[in-house]
Known about the structure:
Structural class: mainly alpha
Radius of gyration: 22 Å
Order of helices and strands: H
Number of strands: 0
Mean pLDDT: 78
Helix content: 55-70%
Low-confidence stretches: none
Amino acid sequence: MVPLLLVLLLALVLFGAGFAIKILWWVAVAVLVLWLLGFVMRSTDAGGGRGRWYRW
């Protein structure tokens, strides 16, 4: 009975990790798209040059 429970627990953990990793990939892609949009659409400063699009 214990080996069966361990196998089921391992399957559950691996399924959860795979789901979390897939979600993290989608989050990383969304952040990359936002970063690229911010890089392309940054505003100009008073001197006519390109300013930083982030605040930090």
